[in-house]
């Protein structure tokens, strides 16, 4: 597995070492909002990630314990990726990034989600956190 060499002990530098790459955030976005969990599903995202880049970023997220990788119960030749508790703690950050991006790119984004976030951000974060925790629990129970 690939690991990251952290540049310093600065909290911002640590965060950027892991999440500063656009693909990391898009993979996390797909896991949280679209409930994607397989390599094939990540490849179908609109941004067109290369297979080697996807494999590398999933490996880093797994090494850094943001996600787990388990053999798929449906197909023993493939894997499912799920957020860990550490990964789930990123949900509020992802929501903030979503709100910030929508403020400067009003054409993009899920309008219904954005409306909910603007009305009750804490409630939406709690909802997605609970959903991801449930998925994590189910993956452990099934595999």
From TrEMBL:
Keyword set includes Transmembrane: no
InterPro entries the record matches: HTH_HxlR, WH-like_DNA-bd_sf, WH_DNA-bd_sf
UniProt keywords, alphabetically: DNA-binding, Transcription, Transcription regulation
Keyword DNA-binding: yes
UniProt superkingdom: Bacteria
Pfam families according to UniProt: HxlR
Residues annotated as domain HTH hxlR-type: 10-109
Protein name according to UniProt: Helix-turn-helix transcriptional regulator
